[in-house]
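Interim report to the steering committee. The following record documents the input for Reverse transcriptase domain-containing protein (231 residues).
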Amino acid sequence: HCLIAESGEMIASVYFQKSMLIKHKHSFIRLLLLSIETQIGNFQDEITEIESLKAERVWLEQIQYDDLPISVFIEEIIQHNQRLPKQSSPGGDDLPYEILNLLILCSLFHPIVHRVYNGTLQRSLFSSPWNEFIIALLSKKDDLSQLRNYLSIILVNTHTRAFTRIISSRFMKVCRRIINQHQLGFIHGCYIAENDMIIKSLWRMFIPLSTPTEQLMAVSIGITFVKFSKL
């Protein structure tokens, strides 16, 4: 496994190391694909189940519907505000998240904060800054004179973020029974890029054995947040 240089020095074979590394990577990818294929091996049954749910028209239960616009307590506002990323860029208000946290923690501001958040949630009384945002462009690569080589991100005002987190957390409590597990982009805690490998595995396993209608159904269910250019 070694080569002897003319100078007598013993050096490791770079080619051997590289070939072993490539072999290891391929083995890892095969194991990963096997795991994904195991998860979606019964995809035909999943599709049947999903279509039956669609036929029954999935709705929220009344108690779940009533809980969505329920009043926001100051403790809930503080909790979600403290979970905001401290290093994130603020929006047009230029208010750092650390300062917002101090303001919300101050008991003198609790009545105002409570009134603003619940007025928005229950009566759609949006504060004017909540309707403002900034679109920032982040350069990616290649020719920066081309717009396609930039990634756009939206920066909302700082005090808007805590409210959106509250709304998102409430929706996630009821969405798990409505949104299929294969739509990983919608599920909190799931890595969104897994869809790339799942849809490719679906394409290889499911498409040759199915009808054109079932093929389209599989793609529409599994394609969520997957870039078509990668297929």
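The first strand starts at residue 2 and ends at 4. The committee is asked to note this result when reviewing the revised timeline.
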